[in-house]
Amino acid sequence: MLTEADVKQAMTDSGVTTDVSNLGSEQAFSEYGLDSLDLFNLFVELEGKTGVTVPDEDLDKLTSINDVLVYFNKS
Amino acid sequence: MIGIKAISSYIPKEGVDNFKQAETFEESASFVETKLGARFLPRLEQGDDTSDIAVKAVDALLCESDLAKEDIDALIVVTQNPDGQGLPHCAALVHKKLALPTHVAAFDVSLGCSGYVYGLSILQGFLAASGKKNGVLVTADPYSKVITTPNRTTSMLFGDAATATWMGENPQLVVSDCSFGTDGKGAEHLKVEQGELYMNGRQVFNFASLNVAPAIKTLLEKNDWPEESVDAFILHQGSLAIVDAIARRFKGSEAKFIKALENTGNTVSSSIPLILKNYLSNDNSARLVLSGFGVGFSWATCLLKRNEEYVN
């Protein structure tokens, strides 16, 4: 079961330099300053940790921590 | 013993201000600086084609080293964007423009960002097998020829450049060992369609970030080279983000991963030799790791060690 803390830790582990401690679970990644390459790194990290693969066509649907949690935890 | 004796390069002076270009794609200056890594992207001069920049790189090599035209036995051009349709092969055009002697073996190698490491191994093997002494490995793959319309995935990444590496006896650096890999399932993610470059940035990024580090680590272990014994890791400069992503998998050695694409961008097979040339003559690094990766997907890694018997 992936948690919000797991996602934030994955961000740090994957080299996101923005301080994500105040990133809200509903807040859009883009609004918080995370760019496409931050998200590439994040999903490589999460896919490695969970074994879940995110197809390219699903990527645009994952715009916040909540989206990520719902997606990974139902897979 | 055959190895690397000298490297020269040609980088066009004219090009694209990547900050201004990024504005047109609504990308920030921070994105350019911290993720792409390229402030400036050199572009082919008006009227120049692939063979022309290859010739300029070889001319620089002839000018900056002791190599003479009549001493060249083999010429390899690594490119996937040759003049015209690639027939005749680019190496023949370079041979003609340089007025090289007819005894020269000249051929192209069709590889992208893994091409330099492949090329070192191919040329070394060719020279050894044929009993020849001097070969020139050229990299010249100007992607601006296939990025003709603005594209947010490719326009901000690639720069044009060419390099020429002299391989022969009494080298400064010797290829100690190498490894290669291919995953043809990745072919669809980086290709030219109807004359325009298409890249699935995420798939290319995932491939590189997951495959390159294990390939390097396996080769290091096979040769009993601890990570800490390596002086520098010279990776293909795909983008700053991809070099960082790979370096993070080498805890404690991240600072040894060279980042040098600020004034060139991703120059495909030229990115590694553009850096490596700084490790000749005035450098004492004993152990270097090279790794190129990209279109195919294709990857190649080699270990270079300094020839302690090298006589200047």
Automatic annotation (TrEMBL), chain A:
InterPro entries: ACP-like_sf, PP-bd_ACP. It comes from the Bacteria. Gene3D superfamilies: ACP-like. This is Acyl carrier protein. It comes from Alteromonas macleodii (strain English Channel 673). PROSITE patterns: CARRIER (PS50075). Residues 1-75 form the Carrier domain.
TrEMBL record, chain B:
Residues 107-184 form the Beta-ketoacyl-[acyl-carrier-protein] synthase III N-terminal domain. Keywords: Fatty acid biosynthesis, Fatty acid metabolism, Lipid biosynthesis, Lipid metabolism, Transferase. One of its GO terms (biological process) is fatty acid biosynthetic process. It comes from the Bacteria. InterPro entries: ACP_syn_III_C, ACP_syn_III_N, Thiolase-like. GO terms for molecular function: 3-oxoacyl-[acyl-carrier-protein] synthase activity. Residues 220-305 form the Beta-ketoacyl-[acyl-carrier-protein] synthase III C-terminal domain. The keyword Ribonucleoprotein does not apply. The keyword Nuclease does not apply. Pathway: Lipid metabolism. Gene3D superfamilies: 3.40.47.10. Belongs to the thiolase-like superfamily. FabH family. PANTHER family: 3-OXOACYL-[ACYL-CARRIER-PROTEIN] SYNTHASE (PTHR43091), BETA-KETOACYL-[ACYL-CARRIER-PROTEIN] SYNTHASE III, CHLOROPLASTIC (PTHR43091:SF1). This is 3-oxoacyl-ACP synthase. It comes from Alteromonas macleodii (strain English Channel 673). The lineage of its organism: Bacteria, Pseudomonadati, Pseudomonadota, Gammaproteobacteria, Alteromonadales.
